[in-house]
Design a protein that fits this description.
This protein has 457 residues and is α/β, with parallel strands linked by helices. It folds into two domains: 2-339, TIM Barrel (Alpha-Beta Barrel); 345-456, Sandwich (Jelly Rolls). The chain is 23% helix and 23% strand. It is built from ten helices and 18 strands. It has helices at residues 2-9, 15-23, 33-37, 58-67, 104-115, 136-151, 178-188, 256-260, 291-299, 322-339, and strands at residues 25-29, 72-78, 118-123, 158-161, 193-195, 203-204, 219-221, 265-267, 270-275, 306-311, 345-349, 359-368, 373-378, 386-395, 400-406, 413-416, 435-445, 451-456. The longest helix has 18 residues, at 322-339. The chain is globular and about 75 Å long. The structure holds beta-L-fucopyranose (FUL).
Amino acid sequence: MIDFLKEAAHVKPGKKQLDWFEMEFYAFVHFGSNTFTGKEWGEGTEDEAIFNPEKLDCNQWVEAIKAAGMKGMVLTAKHHDGFCLWPSAYTEHSVKNSPCKRDIVKEAAEACKRGGIKFGFYLSPWDRNSKYYGTAAYNDYFCDQLTELLTQYGDIFYVWFDNACGEGKNGKKQEYDFPRYFELIHKYQPNALIFNDYGPDVRWCGNEAGAARHAEWAVVPSELCHYAEVQTGPGPMAGEGSLSYLYNTEKELGTMPNILYSRGLVFTPSEIDMSIRPGWFWHEEEKPHSLERLFYTYLTSVGANACLHLNIPPNRDGLIDQRDVDRLAELGDLIRRELGERIPASVRKEEGYGATQPVYTITLEQPRETINYVVLREDIAEGQRVESFRIVAEFESGSQYPLYQGTCIGNKKICQLQDPFAGQNPLTDDSEPEIARLKVQVTAARDEVLMKEISVY
Ligand code: FUL
Protein backbone atom coordinates (compact mmCIF):
# COMPACT_ATOMS: atom_id res chain seq x y z
CA MET A 1 0.00 0.00 0.00
CA ILE A 2 2.80 2.41 0.95
CA ASP A 3 4.51 1.69 -2.35
CA PHE A 4 1.31 2.34 -4.23
CA LEU A 5 0.91 5.73 -2.53
CA LYS A 6 4.50 6.60 -3.36
CA GLU A 7 3.83 5.66 -6.94
CA ALA A 8 0.74 7.88 -6.88
CA ALA A 9 2.91 10.78 -5.70
CA HIS A 10 5.08 10.43 -8.81
CA VAL A 11 2.35 10.42 -11.47
CA LYS A 12 3.31 13.49 -13.49
CA PRO A 13 1.64 15.95 -15.86
CA GLY A 14 2.77 16.54 -19.42
CA LYS A 15 4.10 19.93 -20.54
CA LYS A 16 0.74 20.79 -22.17
CA GLN A 17 -1.06 20.21 -18.89
CA LEU A 18 1.40 22.39 -16.98
CA ASP A 19 0.90 25.21 -19.51
CA TRP A 20 -2.87 24.75 -19.24
CA PHE A 21 -2.75 25.08 -15.44
CA GLU A 22 -0.93 28.40 -15.86
CA MET A 23 -3.82 29.72 -17.97
CA GLU A 24 -6.19 29.25 -14.99
CA PHE A 25 -9.22 31.00 -16.47
CA TYR A 26 -10.57 31.04 -20.05
CA ALA A 27 -13.85 31.62 -21.85
CA PHE A 28 -16.40 29.39 -23.48
CA VAL A 29 -18.47 31.03 -26.23
CA HIS A 30 -21.78 29.35 -27.08
CA PHE A 31 -23.17 30.84 -30.26
CA GLY A 32 -25.26 29.36 -33.09
CA SER A 33 -28.84 28.67 -34.18
CA ASN A 34 -29.95 28.41 -30.56
CA THR A 35 -29.04 32.06 -30.07
CA PHE A 36 -31.85 32.89 -32.50
CA THR A 37 -34.45 30.27 -31.50
CA GLY A 38 -34.05 30.69 -27.74
CA LYS A 39 -33.37 26.96 -27.31
CA GLU A 40 -30.52 25.25 -25.49
CA TRP A 41 -30.53 22.15 -27.70
CA GLY A 42 -31.56 22.72 -31.30
CA GLU A 43 -33.34 20.05 -33.33
CA GLY A 44 -31.04 20.19 -36.35
CA THR A 45 -33.94 21.28 -38.57
CA GLU A 46 -33.50 25.03 -38.05
CA ASP A 47 -33.46 27.15 -41.20
CA GLU A 48 -30.01 28.64 -41.90
CA ALA A 49 -31.82 31.91 -42.70
CA ILE A 50 -32.43 32.59 -38.99
CA PHE A 51 -28.74 33.03 -38.28
CA ASN A 52 -28.19 36.74 -38.82
CA PRO A 53 -25.93 38.49 -36.27
CA GLU A 54 -25.85 41.88 -37.95
CA LYS A 55 -23.35 43.61 -35.66
CA LEU A 56 -21.05 40.61 -35.18
CA ASP A 57 -17.72 41.72 -33.74
CA CYS A 58 -15.39 39.10 -32.31
CA ASN A 59 -13.00 41.83 -31.15
CA GLN A 60 -15.68 42.95 -28.73
CA TRP A 61 -15.86 39.39 -27.36
CA VAL A 62 -12.10 39.32 -26.85
CA GLU A 63 -12.04 42.66 -25.05
CA ALA A 64 -14.79 41.53 -22.67
CA ILE A 65 -12.98 38.23 -22.03
CA LYS A 66 -9.67 39.94 -21.36
CA ALA A 67 -11.22 42.41 -18.94
CA ALA A 68 -12.01 39.48 -16.63
CA GLY A 69 -8.42 38.25 -16.86
CA MET A 70 -9.24 35.24 -19.02
CA LYS A 71 -6.44 33.88 -21.20
CA GLY A 72 -8.27 32.07 -23.98
CA MET A 73 -11.52 31.46 -25.86
CA VAL A 74 -13.22 28.21 -26.88
CA LEU A 75 -15.90 28.70 -29.54
CA THR A 76 -18.75 26.27 -30.25
CA ALA A 77 -17.86 25.66 -33.90
CA LYS A 78 -20.80 23.20 -34.07
CA HIS A 79 -23.32 22.42 -31.35
CA HIS A 80 -25.74 19.47 -31.20
CA ASP A 81 -27.96 20.99 -33.94
CA GLY A 82 -25.14 20.49 -36.46
CA PHE A 83 -25.07 24.12 -37.64
CA CYS A 84 -21.47 25.08 -38.45
CA LEU A 85 -20.03 28.51 -37.69
CA TRP A 86 -17.51 27.99 -40.48
CA PRO A 87 -18.30 27.29 -44.16
CA SER A 88 -17.57 23.57 -43.99
CA ALA A 89 -17.22 21.86 -47.37
CA TYR A 90 -19.02 18.81 -45.97
CA THR A 91 -22.46 20.21 -45.15
CA GLU A 92 -24.94 22.82 -46.35
CA HIS A 93 -26.03 23.46 -42.75
CA SER A 94 -23.63 26.30 -42.00
CA VAL A 95 -23.00 30.04 -42.10
CA LYS A 96 -22.46 29.84 -45.86
CA ASN A 97 -26.22 29.46 -46.39
CA SER A 98 -27.18 32.04 -43.77
CA PRO A 99 -27.57 35.78 -44.42
CA CYS A 100 -24.41 36.29 -42.36
CA LYS A 101 -22.08 34.38 -44.72
CA ARG A 102 -19.03 35.13 -42.53
CA ASP A 103 -16.55 32.54 -41.31
CA ILE A 104 -17.02 33.07 -37.59
CA VAL A 105 -14.38 30.54 -36.56
CA LYS A 106 -11.86 32.51 -38.62
CA GLU A 107 -12.94 35.87 -37.24
CA ALA A 108 -12.84 34.57 -33.66
CA ALA A 109 -9.42 32.94 -34.13
CA GLU A 110 -8.02 36.14 -35.63
CA ALA A 111 -9.53 38.32 -32.91
CA CYS A 112 -7.91 36.09 -30.26
CA LYS A 113 -4.57 36.35 -32.01
CA ARG A 114 -4.84 40.14 -32.22
CA GLY A 115 -5.85 40.30 -28.57
CA GLY A 116 -3.03 38.00 -27.43
CA ILE A 117 -5.21 35.19 -26.06
CA LYS A 118 -5.37 31.53 -27.09
CA PHE A 119 -8.04 30.04 -29.32
CA GLY A 120 -9.71 26.65 -29.22
CA PHE A 121 -12.96 25.10 -30.34
CA TYR A 122 -15.84 22.92 -29.19
CA LEU A 123 -17.07 20.43 -31.76
CA SER A 124 -20.14 18.44 -30.79
CA PRO A 125 -19.98 14.79 -31.81
CA TRP A 126 -23.76 14.65 -31.36
CA ASP A 127 -25.16 16.06 -34.61
CA ARG A 128 -28.93 16.13 -35.01
CA ASN A 129 -28.71 17.44 -38.55
CA SER A 130 -26.30 15.12 -40.32
CA LYS A 131 -27.84 12.38 -42.41
CA TYR A 132 -24.83 10.22 -41.60
CA TYR A 133 -25.39 10.27 -37.85
CA GLY A 134 -25.88 6.73 -36.54
CA THR A 135 -23.97 5.11 -39.44
CA ALA A 136 -20.30 4.22 -39.92
CA ALA A 137 -19.99 7.12 -42.39
CA TYR A 138 -20.60 9.64 -39.62
CA ASN A 139 -17.14 9.16 -38.13
CA ASP A 140 -15.66 10.01 -41.56
CA TYR A 141 -17.86 13.11 -41.75
CA PHE A 142 -16.83 14.14 -38.24
CA CYS A 143 -13.14 13.60 -39.00
CA ASP A 144 -13.42 15.68 -42.19
CA GLN A 145 -14.91 18.56 -40.22
CA LEU A 146 -12.38 18.19 -37.45
CA THR A 147 -9.58 18.30 -40.02
CA GLU A 148 -10.96 21.54 -41.48
CA LEU A 149 -10.92 23.12 -38.04
CA LEU A 150 -7.47 21.79 -37.16
CA THR A 151 -5.80 22.92 -40.37
CA GLN A 152 -7.37 26.24 -41.39
CA TYR A 153 -7.38 28.40 -38.28
CA GLY A 154 -3.83 28.66 -36.93
CA ASP A 155 -2.76 27.43 -33.51
CA ILE A 156 -5.43 25.67 -31.51
CA PHE A 157 -4.82 25.31 -27.76
CA TYR A 158 -7.85 23.20 -26.89
CA VAL A 159 -10.33 20.85 -28.50
CA TRP A 160 -13.41 20.38 -26.33
CA PHE A 161 -15.48 17.27 -26.97
CA ASP A 162 -18.96 17.00 -25.61
CA ASN A 163 -19.88 13.52 -24.53
CA ALA A 164 -23.61 14.02 -25.02
CA CYS A 165 -24.88 11.29 -27.29
CA GLY A 166 -28.47 11.36 -28.45
CA GLU A 167 -30.29 10.32 -31.56
CA GLY A 168 -29.69 11.98 -34.90
CA LYS A 169 -32.45 12.98 -37.30
CA ASN A 170 -32.73 9.37 -38.45
CA GLY A 171 -33.51 8.30 -34.87
CA LYS A 172 -30.20 6.46 -34.52
CA LYS A 173 -27.43 6.68 -31.94
CA GLN A 174 -23.79 6.92 -32.87
CA GLU A 175 -20.67 5.15 -31.65
CA TYR A 176 -18.03 7.93 -31.52
CA ASP A 177 -14.56 6.91 -32.67
CA PHE A 178 -12.69 9.04 -30.15
CA PRO A 179 -9.27 7.38 -30.65
CA ARG A 180 -9.48 8.35 -34.34
CA TYR A 181 -10.45 11.94 -33.47
CA PHE A 182 -7.56 12.16 -31.00
CA GLU A 183 -5.12 10.90 -33.62
CA LEU A 184 -6.06 13.76 -35.94
CA ILE A 185 -5.48 16.30 -33.19
CA HIS A 186 -2.09 14.81 -32.37
CA LYS A 187 -1.19 14.94 -36.05
CA TYR A 188 -2.32 18.48 -36.91
CA GLN A 189 -2.16 20.31 -33.58
CA PRO A 190 0.26 18.41 -31.33
CA ASN A 191 0.19 21.22 -28.76
CA ALA A 192 -3.59 21.18 -28.36
CA LEU A 193 -5.08 19.70 -25.21
CA ILE A 194 -8.05 17.40 -25.52
CA PHE A 195 -11.00 17.81 -23.20
CA ASN A 196 -13.49 15.01 -22.88
CA ASP A 197 -15.64 13.98 -19.92
CA TYR A 198 -13.07 11.25 -19.25
CA GLY A 199 -9.81 12.86 -20.44
CA PRO A 200 -7.26 12.22 -21.90
CA ASP A 201 -5.68 15.62 -21.09
CA VAL A 202 -8.40 17.35 -19.07
CA ARG A 203 -11.54 15.83 -17.57
CA TRP A 204 -14.94 17.19 -16.62
CA CYS A 205 -15.53 18.05 -12.95
CA GLY A 206 -18.91 16.32 -13.13
CA ASN A 207 -21.34 19.26 -12.83
CA GLU A 208 -22.16 22.54 -14.58
CA ALA A 209 -22.69 24.54 -11.39
CA GLY A 210 -19.08 25.57 -10.93
CA ALA A 211 -18.44 23.27 -7.98
CA ALA A 212 -15.13 21.49 -7.42
CA ARG A 213 -14.84 18.54 -5.04
CA HIS A 214 -13.55 19.13 -1.52
CA ALA A 215 -10.43 17.33 -2.79
CA GLU A 216 -10.05 17.78 -6.56
CA TRP A 217 -7.08 15.54 -7.32
CA ALA A 218 -5.38 15.62 -10.72
CA VAL A 219 -4.19 12.03 -10.18
CA VAL A 220 -7.19 9.76 -10.64
CA PRO A 221 -7.96 6.10 -11.34
CA SER A 222 -7.40 5.02 -14.92
CA GLU A 223 -10.90 3.48 -14.94
CA LEU A 224 -12.23 7.03 -15.12
CA CYS A 225 -9.93 8.41 -17.81
CA HIS A 226 -9.35 5.42 -20.02
CA TYR A 227 -7.86 7.50 -22.84
CA ALA A 228 -5.06 8.89 -20.67
CA GLU A 229 -1.68 7.25 -20.28
CA VAL A 230 -1.51 4.96 -17.22
CA GLN A 231 1.59 5.80 -15.19
CA THR A 232 1.60 3.24 -12.38
CA GLY A 233 1.59 -0.48 -11.96
CA PRO A 234 -1.74 -2.09 -11.16
CA GLY A 235 -3.23 -1.20 -7.76
CA PRO A 236 -3.43 -3.77 -4.93
CA MET A 237 -6.97 -4.73 -5.87
CA ALA A 238 -6.53 -4.72 -9.65
CA GLY A 239 -8.37 -7.31 -11.68
CA GLU A 240 -11.93 -8.50 -11.42
CA GLY A 241 -12.47 -7.12 -7.94
CA SER A 242 -11.45 -3.55 -8.77
CA LEU A 243 -13.75 -0.68 -9.65
CA SER A 244 -15.08 -1.36 -13.10
CA TYR A 245 -17.28 1.71 -13.26
CA LEU A 246 -16.36 5.10 -12.02
CA TYR A 247 -18.33 8.19 -12.96
CA ASN A 248 -17.03 11.72 -13.04
CA THR A 249 -19.96 12.73 -10.86
CA GLU A 250 -18.61 10.75 -7.86
CA LYS A 251 -17.77 12.75 -4.78
CA GLU A 252 -14.43 11.02 -4.35
CA LEU A 253 -12.12 10.50 -7.28
CA GLY A 254 -8.48 10.75 -6.32
CA THR A 255 -8.63 10.32 -2.55
CA MET A 256 -6.70 7.46 -0.97
CA PRO A 257 -9.43 4.87 -0.41
CA ASN A 258 -10.58 5.51 -3.95
CA ILE A 259 -7.24 5.16 -5.73
CA LEU A 260 -6.24 2.15 -3.65
CA TYR A 261 -8.81 0.02 -5.38
CA SER A 262 -8.07 1.29 -8.86
CA ARG A 263 -6.30 -0.54 -11.66
CA GLY A 264 -3.78 2.22 -12.27
CA LEU A 265 -3.36 5.98 -12.13
CA VAL A 266 -3.33 8.78 -14.69
CA PHE A 267 -2.66 12.51 -14.46
CA THR A 268 -5.88 14.11 -15.74
CA PRO A 269 -6.84 17.37 -14.01
CA SER A 270 -10.34 18.72 -13.76
CA GLU A 271 -11.95 21.64 -15.57
CA ILE A 272 -14.83 23.53 -13.95
CA ASP A 273 -17.18 24.66 -16.71
CA MET A 274 -20.11 26.94 -16.06
CA SER A 275 -22.04 29.70 -17.79
CA ILE A 276 -22.15 33.32 -16.67
CA ARG A 277 -25.94 32.97 -17.01
CA PRO A 278 -28.32 30.07 -16.33
CA GLY A 279 -28.22 28.93 -19.99
CA TRP A 280 -25.23 28.15 -22.20
CA PHE A 281 -26.79 30.19 -25.05
CA TRP A 282 -27.99 33.78 -24.83
CA HIS A 283 -31.63 34.26 -23.85
CA GLU A 284 -33.23 37.67 -23.61
CA GLU A 285 -34.84 37.01 -20.23
CA GLU A 286 -31.68 35.78 -18.50
CA LYS A 287 -29.12 37.88 -16.73
CA PRO A 288 -25.59 37.22 -15.51
CA HIS A 289 -24.92 35.62 -12.13
CA SER A 290 -23.97 37.90 -9.26
CA LEU A 291 -20.40 39.09 -8.87
CA GLU A 292 -20.31 37.24 -5.56
CA ARG A 293 -21.23 33.89 -7.12
CA LEU A 294 -18.71 34.29 -9.93
CA PHE A 295 -15.93 35.32 -7.58
CA TYR A 296 -16.52 32.33 -5.28
CA THR A 297 -16.54 30.06 -8.28
CA TYR A 298 -13.20 31.52 -9.30
CA LEU A 299 -11.73 30.90 -5.83
CA THR A 300 -13.04 27.34 -5.67
CA SER A 301 -11.94 26.33 -9.15
CA VAL A 302 -8.67 28.11 -9.99
CA GLY A 303 -8.03 27.87 -6.25
CA ALA A 304 -8.91 24.17 -6.03
CA ASN A 305 -6.43 22.58 -8.42
CA ALA A 306 -8.57 23.09 -11.52
CA CYS A 307 -9.12 25.68 -14.28
CA LEU A 308 -12.28 27.72 -14.75
CA HIS A 309 -14.00 27.70 -18.15
CA LEU A 310 -16.62 30.42 -17.98
CA ASN A 311 -19.18 30.68 -20.77
CA ILE A 312 -20.08 34.10 -22.20
CA PRO A 313 -22.81 33.80 -24.85
CA PRO A 314 -23.07 36.46 -27.59
CA ASN A 315 -26.54 37.81 -28.30
CA ARG A 316 -28.51 38.01 -31.55
CA ASP A 317 -26.51 41.04 -32.72
CA GLY A 318 -23.36 38.94 -32.41
CA LEU A 319 -22.12 40.92 -29.42
CA ILE A 320 -21.59 40.10 -25.76
CA ASP A 321 -24.54 41.55 -23.84
CA GLN A 322 -23.55 44.79 -22.06
CA ARG A 323 -24.67 43.36 -18.71
CA ASP A 324 -22.19 40.53 -19.13
CA VAL A 325 -19.47 42.91 -20.34
CA ASP A 326 -19.95 44.94 -17.15
CA ARG A 327 -19.97 41.85 -14.92
CA LEU A 328 -16.76 40.55 -16.49
CA ALA A 329 -15.03 43.88 -15.91
CA GLU A 330 -16.18 43.89 -12.28
CA LEU A 331 -14.98 40.33 -11.83
CA GLY A 332 -11.55 41.13 -13.28
CA ASP A 333 -11.27 44.18 -11.01
CA LEU A 334 -12.26 42.18 -7.95
CA ILE A 335 -9.79 39.38 -8.68
CA ARG A 336 -7.00 41.90 -9.17
CA ARG A 337 -7.97 43.81 -6.05
CA GLU A 338 -8.18 40.71 -3.84
CA LEU A 339 -5.31 38.67 -5.21
CA GLY A 340 -3.20 41.12 -7.19
CA GLU A 341 -0.70 42.24 -4.57
CA ARG A 342 1.07 40.04 -2.06
CA ILE A 343 1.57 41.07 1.55
CA PRO A 344 5.34 41.23 2.14
CA ALA A 345 6.39 38.18 4.14
CA SER A 346 9.16 35.61 4.34
CA VAL A 347 8.66 31.84 4.39
CA ARG A 348 10.83 29.38 6.30
CA LYS A 349 10.52 25.60 6.30
CA GLU A 350 10.89 24.36 9.87
CA GLU A 351 13.54 21.74 10.53
CA GLY A 352 12.69 18.69 12.56
CA TYR A 353 9.50 17.63 10.86
CA GLY A 354 9.34 14.68 8.46
CA ALA A 355 9.48 15.10 4.67
CA THR A 356 5.77 14.33 4.42
CA GLN A 357 4.67 16.63 7.26
CA PRO A 358 6.63 19.87 6.90
CA VAL A 359 5.66 23.08 8.67
CA TYR A 360 6.17 26.41 6.93
CA THR A 361 6.32 29.60 8.97
CA ILE A 362 5.23 32.75 7.17
CA THR A 363 6.55 35.82 8.97
CA LEU A 364 4.85 39.05 7.99
CA GLU A 365 7.11 42.06 7.52
CA GLN A 366 4.53 44.09 9.45
CA PRO A 367 2.05 42.47 11.88
CA ARG A 368 -1.49 42.89 10.58
CA GLU A 369 -5.05 42.62 11.76
CA THR A 370 -6.26 40.79 8.69
CA ILE A 371 -5.06 38.27 6.18
CA ASN A 372 -7.56 37.56 3.45
CA TYR A 373 -6.00 34.69 1.51
CA VAL A 374 -3.16 32.22 1.70
CA VAL A 375 -2.14 30.80 -1.67
CA LEU A 376 -0.31 27.47 -1.75
CA ARG A 377 1.20 25.79 -4.79
CA GLU A 378 2.88 22.43 -5.04
CA ASP A 379 5.54 21.82 -7.65
CA ILE A 380 3.20 19.51 -9.52
CA ALA A 381 5.67 19.01 -12.35
CA GLU A 382 7.03 16.44 -9.85
CA GLY A 383 3.57 15.08 -8.95
CA GLN A 384 0.72 15.93 -6.58
CA ARG A 385 1.39 14.91 -2.98
CA VAL A 386 -0.29 16.85 -0.18
CA GLU A 387 -3.43 15.16 1.19
CA SER A 388 -4.23 17.53 4.06
CA PHE A 389 -2.93 20.64 5.80
CA ARG A 390 -3.92 23.30 8.28
CA ILE A 391 -3.15 26.97 8.78
CA VAL A 392 -2.73 28.56 12.18
CA ALA A 393 -2.35 32.28 12.99
CA GLU A 394 0.25 33.25 15.55
CA PHE A 395 0.03 36.53 17.44
CA GLU A 396 3.02 38.46 18.68
CA SER A 397 2.53 36.97 22.15
CA GLY A 398 3.01 33.51 20.59
CA SER A 399 -0.59 32.45 21.20
CA GLN A 400 -2.22 30.64 18.28
CA TYR A 401 -5.58 30.53 16.57
CA PRO A 402 -6.63 27.90 14.00
CA LEU A 403 -7.67 29.53 10.73
CA TYR A 404 -8.13 26.92 8.03
CA GLN A 405 -8.13 23.22 7.35
CA GLY A 406 -7.71 21.92 3.83
CA THR A 407 -7.41 18.73 1.81
CA CYS A 408 -5.24 18.50 -1.30
CA ILE A 409 -3.23 21.44 -2.72
CA GLY A 410 -1.97 20.58 -6.19
CA ASN A 411 -1.32 23.33 -8.72
CA LYS A 412 -2.96 26.07 -6.65
CA LYS A 413 -4.98 26.21 -3.47
CA ILE A 414 -6.52 29.56 -2.56
CA CYS A 415 -7.41 29.48 1.14
CA GLN A 416 -9.95 32.18 1.77
CA LEU A 417 -9.76 33.48 5.33
CA GLN A 418 -11.90 36.60 4.97
CA ASP A 419 -15.00 37.18 2.93
CA PRO A 420 -14.97 40.45 0.94
CA PHE A 421 -18.78 40.39 0.84
CA ALA A 422 -19.32 39.75 4.54
CA GLY A 423 -18.75 41.85 7.64
CA GLN A 424 -15.74 41.73 9.92
CA ASN A 425 -13.89 38.54 10.62
CA PRO A 426 -14.38 37.69 14.34
CA LEU A 427 -10.61 37.41 14.59
CA THR A 428 -10.06 41.06 13.94
CA ASP A 429 -12.09 43.02 16.47
CA ASP A 430 -10.20 45.78 18.25
CA SER A 431 -9.38 43.78 21.33
CA GLU A 432 -7.36 41.17 19.40
CA PRO A 433 -3.64 41.46 18.93
CA GLU A 434 -2.24 41.58 15.44
CA ILE A 435 -1.16 38.53 13.47
CA ALA A 436 2.61 38.23 13.33
CA ARG A 437 3.02 34.85 11.70
CA LEU A 438 1.11 32.08 10.00
CA LYS A 439 2.00 28.42 10.16
CA VAL A 440 1.11 26.11 7.30
CA GLN A 441 1.33 22.56 8.56
CA VAL A 442 1.05 19.64 6.17
CA THR A 443 -0.67 16.84 8.09
CA ALA A 444 -0.48 14.10 5.43
CA ALA A 445 1.29 13.65 2.09
CA ARG A 446 2.02 10.77 -0.27
CA ASP A 447 5.73 11.55 -0.47
CA GLU A 448 8.16 14.38 0.23
CA VAL A 449 6.33 17.70 -0.07
CA LEU A 450 7.66 20.07 -2.73
CA MET A 451 6.07 23.51 -2.44
CA LYS A 452 6.59 26.00 -5.24
CA GLU A 453 4.84 29.00 -3.71
CA ILE A 454 3.38 30.16 -0.40
CA SER A 455 2.02 33.69 -0.42
CA VAL A 456 -0.43 35.82 1.52
CA TYR A 457 -2.89 38.51 0.40
C1 FUL B 1 -23.20 19.94 -22.57
C2 FUL B 1 -24.14 20.38 -23.72
O1 FUL B 1 -25.22 19.51 -23.84
C3 FUL B 1 -24.55 21.80 -23.39
O2 FUL B 1 -25.45 22.28 -24.33
C4 FUL B 1 -23.29 22.65 -23.33
O3 FUL B 1 -22.70 22.74 -24.63
C5 FUL B 1 -22.30 22.09 -22.31
C6 FUL B 1 -21.00 22.84 -22.27
O4 FUL B 1 -22.04 20.73 -22.57
O5 FUL B 1 -22.91 18.60 -22.63
